[in-house]
Amino acid sequence: MGKVGIPSLIFRFYHRFTNDDVFGLAAQLAYFFLLSLFPLLIFLVSLVPYLPITEMDILNVIRDFAPGQTMQLIENNLHQLMEHHSGQLLTFGIIATLWSASNGINAIVKGFNRAYDVPESRPFWQARGMAIVLTVAMVFVFIIALLLPVFGKQIGLYIADHFNNSWEFLRVWGTLRWVISSIIIFIVFLGLYMIAPNKKVLLADAIPGAVFATIGFAVVSLAFSFYVDNFGNYAHMYGSLGGIIVLLIWFYLTSFVIIIGGEINAFIALVRKR
């Protein structure tokens, strides 16, 4: 096959983009993200007594990316839920997280299969089991993401105290937190793009989409947060529902980036094959 010009490649990608109904899949995924958010937070906060982290550590990880109005909504509802903290709440958080988040993984699988033009031939129990395993893996990675900054900061402060440059360390640590978070997000996306499609995807073939999704997630989150904090006053338009609308839009933009990452991997694989 001869060389294909960049305009032709862009047109082909746009054609696949529209045919695969990326906007509709992103909306479906955002809905499941919304359903699984609070069960996941309940589960994580219920683990706080058993881990060397605090409720604020969990919220700080989300605060790095989430818009301000969203954080207020999350904090208020989380505090109300934790007032009724019990062992049953932990059990509910586990079950609800696994079910609702695995539905979201199923939506991702559907989108990736459509991107690769492959049918879902796996039995229901296998597909659902894979979705649950991916959900557990992502929760586990999220817990690591919480523990690394905590331990890292403690170790760093211990070293800084001995060298009397704690201020310099804290300045560097603010940047290092972003690097650690980005690496962990990249690993999550990489695993997702390799395992979710009903097709063997090699590590090298999943990297382009994972890089795009990691950068895209950070850029979209920061840009949307800046817009909401400075220009978009959703509280005036939607009243008390403003925080939920902002949260849903943020999930939609994030879902859009994730689906596009899968489309990029599938398109590159198709171009290489041809």
Automatic annotation (TrEMBL):
<keyword id="KW-0472">Membrane</keyword>
<feature type="transmembrane region" description="Helical">
    <location>
        <begin position="130"/>
        <end position="152"/>
    </location>
</feature>
<feature type="transmembrane region" description="Helical">
    <location>
        <begin position="172"/>
        <end position="195"/>
    </location>
</feature>
<protein>
    <submittedName>
        <fullName>Membrane protein</fullName>
    </submittedName>
</protein>
<dbReference type="Pfam" id="PF03631">
    <property type="entry name" value="Virul_fac_BrkB"/>
</dbReference>
<keyword id="KW-0812">Transmembrane</keyword>
<feature type="transmembrane region" description="Helical">
    <location>
        <begin position="22"/>
        <end position="51"/>
    </location>
</feature>
<dbReference type="GO" id="GO:0005886">
    <property type="term" value="C:plasma membrane"/>
</dbReference>
<feature type="transmembrane region" description="Helical">
    <location>
        <begin position="240"/>
        <end position="271"/>
    </location>
</feature>
<dbReference type="InterPro" id="IPR017039">
    <property type="entry name" value="Virul_fac_BrkB"/>
</dbReference>
<feature type="transmembrane region" description="Helical">
    <location>
        <begin position="207"/>
        <end position="228"/>
    </location>
</feature>
<keyword id="KW-1133">Transmembrane helix</keyword>
<keyword id="KW-1003">Cell membrane</keyword>
<feature type="transmembrane region" description="Helical">
    <location>
        <begin position="89"/>
        <end position="109"/>
    </location>
</feature>
